[in-house]
Design goal:
Blueprint lengths: L1 E6 L13 E6 L2 E5 L5 H7 L9 E3 L5 H4 L2 H11 L6 E5 L3 H12 L12 E5 L5 E4 L2 E8 L7 E7 L4 E4 L9 H5 L4 E5 L13 H6 L9 E4 L3 H4 L8 E2 L5 E3 L1
Parallel strand pairs: 3-4, 4-5, 5-6, 10-11, 11-12, 12-13
Antiparallel strand pairs: 1-2, 1-14, 2-3, 7-8, 8-9, 9-10
Length: about 240
């Protein structure tokens, strides 16, 4: 399993980092975890072919996590002429929000017949999506005020990757990620208590509960970035590639 970090930033572009977007490759399958606004140019800059994406999995429906999707739709409509189906998976409400965003950003496209197929899959907590040798299990986290947010447990038969999306610490997180080879965990803050977000302090204080092989911190805000040198856990950065 290969993990490519196209975007490891927050909604503010702190540290000049792109909004969340993580490529997961296993065998012939390639999926995308979240899709920030700069994801398509990030893929092209990394010489990754957008047509090879099997699926986009959204952790939640905040703009920094799904605002890049309309650019993929334009790419598939006018440039690369996608033939196979794209799976668009996420929490309840995904289809409406994605289609609304596409129409708002490119209003004329509402009357243009779509030349590619999108299969929306709105998941429930505990539901798994099977994608050509990759299994993605959604687990509920604590982030938006009124909507569902997910983390994902990704397995390819050899390795297990867990991704928290955005969340505060909650008692069920340790169980959801148990046994993962790698946990990609949100660490927006260093020590501050930020509502509905996790901090480096949270991860360190619960480290013994997290029965995972390795932890990588992402989605860092200004306070976290200013204290990277004090962290005892590894941090992700744009362009980082991991062979798991």
């Amino acid at each position: 399993m290969q993990i490519i970090f196209l975007g490891t930033g927050d909604a503010f572009g702190s540290g000049g980092r792109n909004a969340p977007a993580i490529i997961v490759r296993s065998g012939d399958s390639m999926i995308l975890l979240d899709c920030g606004p700069c994801t398509l140019p990030g893929m092209k800059g990394a010489s990754l072919e957008p047509l090879k994406l099997k699926a986009i999995l959204l952790s939640h429906l905040h703009g920094d996590h799904f605002g890049g999707i309309p650019f993929f739709y334009l790419e598939y409509q006018f440039l690369s002429h996608r033939d196979d189906e794209l799976v668009m998976a996420g929490p309840p409400g995904t289809e409406q929000r994605v289609e609304d965003l596409y129409r708002v950003m490119f209003s004329e496209m509402k009357d243009v017949p779509r030349k590619f197929r999108v299969r929306y899959k709105e998941l429930q907590a505990g539901e798994a999506l099977e994608l050509d040798g990759i299994s993605a299990l959604a687990f509920q986290v604590v982030h938006p005020l009124r909507e569902t947010a997910f983390g994902y447990r990704i397995e390819d038969g050899e390795r297990v990757l867990c991704y928290t999306g955005d969340t505060q610490w909650f008692p069920g997180l340790a169980q959801a990620v148990k046994g993962a080879d790698l946990l990609i965990a949100e660490g927006f803050a260093f020590e501050k208590d930020i509502p509905r977000h996790m901090s480096y302090r949270d991860l360190v204080s619960h480290r013994e509960e997290l029965e995972v092989g390795h932890i990588l911190i992402t989605h860092m805000g200004p306070e976290a970035l200013n204290n990277v040198g004090r962290m005892g856990l590894e941090t992700a950065h744009d362009g980082m590639v991991i062979e798991l």
